[in-house]
Amino acid sequence: MAVELPFEKPLVELRSKIEELKTFTEEKGIDVSSEVAELERKAQELMETIYKNLTPWQKVQIARHPERPTTLDYIQGICDDFVELHGDRSFRDDPAVVGGIARFDGYPITVVGTQKGKGTKDNLYRNFGMAHPEGYRKALRLMKQAEKFRRPLLCFVDTAGAYPGLGAEERGQGEAIARNIIEMAALRIPIVVVVTGEGGSGGALGLGVGDRVLMLEHAWYSVIAPESAATILWKDPALGQKAADVMRITAEDLHRFGIIDEILAEPFGGAQRNHAQMIATVKEAVARSFRDLMAIDYGALPDRRFDKYRRIGVYGEGMQ
Amino acid sequence: MLKDLFPKKKRYATISPPSTARDKSLEGIMNKCKRCGEILLSKELEKHLKTCPNCGYHFTMTAQERIAVTFDEGSFQAFTDSLVTENPLEFPDYLEKVEKAQSLTGMEEGVLSGIGTIAGYKAVAAVMDASFIMGSMGSVVGERLTRAVEQALDRRVPMIIFSVSGGARMQEGIFSLMQMAKVSAVLARLAARGGLYISVLTNPTTGGVTASFAMQGDLNLSEPGAIIGFAGRRVIEPMIRQKLPDEFQTSEFVLEHGMLDQVVHRKDMKSLLATVLSLHERGGRG
Questions:
Q1: Interface of A with B in 297-316 (CB under 8 A)
Q2: Are residue A260 and residue A301 in the same domain, yes or no?
Q3: Within this chain, do residues B103 and B152 fall inside the same structural domain, yes or no?
Q4: pLDDT tens-digit readout, A257-311
Q5: Which domain covers residue B41, as residue numbers?
Q6: Nearest partner of B112 among B152, B83, B78, judged by Cα
Q7: Chain B closest-CA separation from residue A114 CA (Å)
Q8: In this structure, are residues B66 and B127 in contact, taking their beta carbons and an 8 Å threshold?
Q9: CATH number at residue A83
Q10: Domain count, chain A
Q11: ∠ CA B95-B101-B107 to the nearest 5 degrees?
């Protein structure tokens, strides 16, 4: 375990104790194998206890784990012949959003997604996966191109949110997201969205309108990041944990609410522990989703998508 | 859809006297301009459509006031519904907050909608109200906006949305976020059928409302000095560690950066809307 999360500490301590005992055995030649076995059994138990009872806040930490697969890992893992395409054709190329064309399950698709970095340098380059307006506009350009060539569209969402900055506001962050949302609602091609880590607010929805929305087991998706919610609600960003509890941001909550269509199971302990397994799960679910959607007349998809979103909302309706 | 209308009750056809419970600045007959400090008589302020005759500052209007100054007298028929806000997240104290807003504003929720004429041209309008939990958008606001756009679709009448909003309503979490997608989806349908949609962004329009329907108009209009943006100044300043200029995110700033078609003084808004509607007569006059 290279990067440990705070709640994994007891497990890490237990593991190091086991290692100590093993070393002790080797050095002194005293047999403590029964003790080691007992501790290993305990470690396994502890792992089960921790990972089967993750709190929303613990899931947020897993969703942000620096070793989770990124959008490019998924693209390279599930597609062949990926050709990355750059630029919004009006301002610049935003490295926080990647996209291109590729072969998936034997047919061509367009794929776009927010891209977090690996390590500090790459994260600075990727702006920690927080897109500027030109990122959303690049994505839209590729979406419209997908529609032109009748290619299904696959979107990966993993962002804390759209970048809040001066340049972003000057260039119309709100307009860029707004345009993507309304255009995605009208695209005459199948759209599958996978929320792989963080689904932060409008920044996520700007790539997140689809016919099928899939979400990884430990991902979060909300109107606002927990820390920001805590800042607004209780004027204290340190209360992110409390906000995570009340905001109902887990895949389980969203599936129960009918906001997402399917939860994709993660490897035990999180996607970061087994990339290959996670990528295989994503590939299978996306392939199955596209198979269903590609059987539908593409011209009918916007109306179906409208019906799907038209139903979302919880309110009472009393007597007139 | 006659049952959806108030054919006889012309509730919103006249400027209602501002209730003191709602707007402390209008208590009594004297008002102080928030920008230049000029003391204004209520009557004078009303005459100038709640703008300062001295410096042009635009005071916030309630939804009812906005309807009264925009639509021809007696023409506006409100759409009625019986939508009731619920608490899907079981968010602590949320419904109490809603009840408080209801008693403070006399409104059921943060948006009014209906149909009327502007200089004789028919339009469906949805008008948000800043005094109802900062004009935030929850499920009821999203549903009402959607239904209003559906009315515009059914009647083949242009749609106007007057926005004023702090953005999403946090207490409704993901449902609030998804209202952005819902309203956008119905506006996409209106666009696909050639319907005109005019968005008027009033002070302030921010967050998820800016990042959805407020920026999706065939025309995006605003009033002078309105704050329009996605992320707020208080979020951006610590992020970039510098102070933002005063004009940041004003409607003039947003116009200059190409996101608005015009910034229009309130006294000219009605005639501009009428002109635009007259230029879209095929889709405009039912």
A1: 302, 305-306, 309-310, 312-316
A2: yes
A3: yes
A4: 999 999 999 999 999 999 999 999 999 999 999 999 999 999 999 999 999 999 9
A5: 19-59
A6: B78
A7: 17
A8: yes
A9: 3.90.226.10
A10: 2
A11: 110
Question: Do A72 and A34 share a structural domain?
Answer: no
Q: In 3D, which of A193, A2, A171, A162 has the Cα closest to residue B235? A: A162
Contact B174 A257 (CB under 8 A): yes
CA distance B211 to B208: 5
Percent of chain B with pLDDT over 90: 81
| CB contact (8 A) between residue A164 and residue B249 | no
pLDDT per residue as tens digits for the range B56-82: 999 999 999 999 999 999 999 999 999
Q: Which of residues 19-78 of B touch A (CB under 8 A)?
A: none
Q: Which residues contact A176 (CB under 8 A, 6 or more apart)?
A: A133, A134, A136, A137, A140, A206
Do B96 and B211 sit in the same domain of this protein? yes
CB < 8 Å to B3, chain A? 320
What's the domain count of chain B? 2
Query: pLDDT band for position A29 (50/70/90)?
Result: confident
Range of the domain at A40: 6-53
Residues A83 and A48 in one domain: no
Residue A251 in contact with partner chain B when CB distance is under 8 A? no
CATH of the domain at B269: 3.90.226.10
Could you tell me how far CA A217 lies from the centroid of its own chain?
Answer: 10
Is A174 close to B210, i.e. CB distance below 8 A?
Answer: yes
Same domain as B225, residue B165: yes
Query: Would you call B188 and A182 a contact, using CB atoms and an 8 Å cutoff?
Result: yes
**Contacting A residues, span 164-203, partner chain B, CB-CB under 8 Å:** 164-166, 168-175, 177-179, 181-183, 185-186, 201-202
The residue behind tokens 């948000």 is B128
Q: Is residue B9 part of a domain?
A: no
A317 to chain B, any CB pair closer than 8 A? The answer is yes
| pTM score, whole prediction | 0.93
* Residue B166 contacts A, CB cutoff 8 Å: no
Residue A319 is predicted with a pLDDT of 63
Q: What residues of A are in contact with residue B176 (Cβ under 8 Å)?
A: 223
- Tell me: do B87 and B42 sit in the same domain: no
Judgement on whether residues A132 and A79 belong to the same structural domain of the protein: yes
- Closest C-alpha among B49, B10, B12 to residue B269: B49
Cβ atoms of B90 and B127 closer than 8 Å: no
